[in-house]
Here is the input.
Amino acid sequence: MPKAEVYNNGILAGILEKKASDIYIFTYDDQYFIDSGKPGISLTLPKTLKEYKSKELFSFFYGLLAEGINKDIQCRLLKIDDEDDFTRLIKTAGEDTIGAITVKELKEAI
Here is the structure.
């Protein structure tokens, strides 16, 4: 299952994953979660819960994606299905994003 590390200002905040049944899970990293000085990554994903589940890509992460012509260009250049928002997120939100959050693909250990 695809997974990604989610960083807040370069600090690991948690893991985002997509399960085969189209269930998305965001889990705060243990160290990040217990540190009261570190904020939740968004208002919709506060640190009141350690894990969040959704049947759709969380709106916060969807907001990191390009739209319109930029989306079309990304999909064409990266050979990504334009309906595959999760893959687009992990392939394009690793750097140079608006705001403090970056998302980097987590390669599974073999």
Remarks:
- The longest strand covers residues 11-18.
